[in-house]
Amino acid sequence: MVSSSSIRETWMTHSLYIFFISMILYIIQTLIFQKLMFGQELIRIKRTPDLPLRFNYDGTFKILQVADMHYGTGVLSRCRDVLASEFMFCSDLNTTQFIRKLIATEKPDFIAFTGDNIFGSSTADAAESLIKAFRPAMESKIPWAAILGNHDQESTMTREELMYFISLMDYSVSQINPSTYDRFDNDRGHVLADIDGFGNYNIHINGAFGTHLANTSVLNLYFLDSGDRATVEGIRTYGWIKESQLHWLRNISEGFQVTKQAQNLDGLPGVATIPALTFFHIPIPEVRQLWYTKFKGQFQEGVACSTVNSGVLQTLTSMGDVKAVFLGHDHLNDFCGEINGIWFCYGGGSGYHGYGKVGWQRRARIILVELEKGKHEWMEVEKIKTWKRLDDENLSKIDMQLLWDRRS
């Protein structure tokens, strides 16, 4: 006859055996199999916007320019240069809230982030900060693109790694650099593009659906990497756009030029180019001379540019298609001024963790491009307008301005 003590010992032995087997299976499942299996927890597909980008049925295309977010870690990154009454509860989250309000109010078709997206020295994880900084754009499902400033790479990623990561984020159409070969460079042949920096690329905006230009680019957006810091003859200065970038830009522009025939609906004969807008972070030296012109907006700090003049203005002028350049970098400047028929416009600082001015609201720029209305359909680009929004109670709209009119 089996004693009750023997039964208890046998039951406890079996229980321990089952427990150890369960623990082994759990460890195999959680620590080994999940690393080997392709489950939803490990593989995530990038969400992409509908491409190509194009004008709306009402003949408009609206761009929101966000400059100098200087995002840190979120709620722990305190605001700079705000009123004493605002400081206690002010952080990176104010920047996020501002961008969300801009998106909800303006309903842009595209968002352009023009550098210093994160404040590298304020974060120990660049990837985490990038995700937080661009979250409003990703949540909105609006196509967006970004370039780098001079502070983005100061954390845990190089500039190349930053652009690679940004290009993989939801609804981003950013690129690390031009793809495969420069197809408009007939002299060099179809060879791989050798170009300085990371974040040089162009984006086509096609005509409206239902028109003969629906599958044709009628507006080009050029993005350029203006670098970060450099040393020239022993003197510390800012980066600049290199000749290899300008060479690529000239070839791209030349490839998109179109010849207008005398039978065009507007009756304007001759040769014209598809208009283009350019985005980069650090201004060129010539922007300083705008102090002596009739600019529109605020010119409140010196233009912090490179000591090297690499010929960007001459290149843009000779191309003939760039109508406006949109800059960041100098947070207290938000003006637009014209040089050689090209408008140079600052976005104004949008980020609360970056420097500002007490009592001067953070801001962002809106760019509206309008098509010409033909007899039966929308035609080519006719006008380019801009204004700014302030982060105040009313999200005030200021400094409305016509930058370009094709018929002028």
TrEMBL record:
It is found in: Secreted. Keywords: Glycoprotein, Iron, Membrane, Metal-binding, Secreted, Signal, Transmembrane, Transmembrane helix, Zinc. The chain crosses the membrane at residues 16-38. The keyword Glycoprotein applies. GO terms for cellular component: cytoplasm; extracellular region. One of its GO terms (molecular function) is hydrolase activity, acting on ester bonds. The keyword Membrane applies. Residues 61-331 form the Calcineurin-like phosphoesterase domain. This is Phosphatase dcr2. It comes from Thalictrum thalictroides.
